[in-house]
Amino acid sequence: MKKTIQKKSKHTVFITGATSGIGLEISRKFAGEGWGVICHYNSSDKKAMALKEEMMAYGVSCVLVKADLSSKSGIDKLVKKIKTLKIDSVINNAGSYLASKHFTKLTTDDIDKTFMVNVFAPIRITSAVFAAMKKNMFGRIVNISSIAAKYGGSSRSMHYGCSKLALEGLTRTIAREGAEFNILANTVRPGVIDTDFHKKFPKDMKARISMIPMKRMGRPEEVADLIYYLGSGKNSFVTNETIAIAGGE
Ligand SMILES: NC(=O)c1ccc[n+]([C@@H]2O[C@H](COP(=O)([O-])OP(=O)(O)OC[C@H]3O[C@@H](n4cnc5c(N)ncnc54)[C@H](OP(=O)(O)O)[C@@H]3O)[C@@H](O)[C@H]2O)c1
Fold it and tell me: Alpha-carbon distance 52 to 38, whole Å?
């Protein structure tokens, strides 16, 4: 690994699902702006090590935390770890639907796991850091929802759409409870963004893109720029908002 001089970062961000797609670009954006990063990942140690190397090249600190957020024990493990760390900003980005099935065929387990990752984990993570943010009189929370919360999920992603709408409830409570302590919470609703997410759930992308007024997918970097604004000290007065980045959808 190339030796780099590590800058002392004033602030640290915790990003879930940091090794791919939107999460990877969020990590790059914060590190590029000099923030220390705590990067959560789930499946690939190889990708996580590559991310750490990339983050170190920015000269900032990088802590990796591995956890499967579809289980209670995975969430408990992560929460225990982050409670020991100083965190100024949380980006609840990890998200998925853990079964792509017609809603009439969903099992309790399918719904449970999807809600674990998309709702329970963000609630536990945000609750774990709230007291320290309050004491520091600084905190930023960005919850990554989806345009699916606006329209409802498709017939095969109903549980996903429902879970993202539930996640938006977290933003509302934290924004209200945190405002007087300079803890600002917002929801970002990405539209169709060009990441591997769509490879996991193949559909007719040409038809889907034709429904977007701007007739193209968004780029993860475009989403990361917005998230950096909301999730950093650049944002000093925006809270309790739901902002779509969806090319006009
Ligand atoms: N791309 C879009 O069009 C789009 C649109 C609307 C909303 N979003 C939202 O944007 C966020 C990022 O998605 P993306 O597009 O960047 O897709 P992605 O590349 O598939 O990233 C999803 C991330 O979630 C993590 N994750 C999935 N299941 C997990 C589990 N069981 N435990 C812990 N982490 C888990 C993944 O970690 P591993 O890879 O390590 O498993 C991955 O880092 C998600 O919340 C997604 O719902 C995306």
Answer: 10
Tokens 């759409």 identify what position? 161
CB of residue 146 inside a 6 A radius of ligand 1: yes
Residue among 48, 55, 60 nearest 10 (CA) = 60
23 lines ligand 1 (CB under 6 A): yes
Could you confirm whether 41 is annotated as catalytic? no
| Domains of the chain from N-terminus onward | 12-245 (3.40.50.720)
Which atom of ligand 1 lies closest to the CA of 116? 31
Of the ranges 3-7, 21-25, 146-150, which one carries the lowest mean pLDDT score?
3-7
Does ligand 1 come within 6 angstroms of the Cβ of 27?
A: no
Of all protein residues, the one whose alpha carbon is nearest to atom 43 of ligand 1 is 17
Query: Beta partners for 141?
Result: 90, 185
Per residue in 31-69, pLDDT (tens digit) is 999 999 999 999 999 999 999 999 999 999 999 999 999
Which numbered atom of ligand 1 lies nearest the CA of 24?
16
Task: Catalytic residue, from 41, 58, 97, 160: name it.
Answer: 160
Q: Which amino acid is at 104?
A: T
236 phi, psi to nearest 5 deg: -120, -5
Rounded distance from Cα 37 to ligand 1 centre (Å) = 18
User: What six digits make up the tokens of 154?
Assistant: 């498709």
| CB 181, CB 133: distance < 8 Å | yes
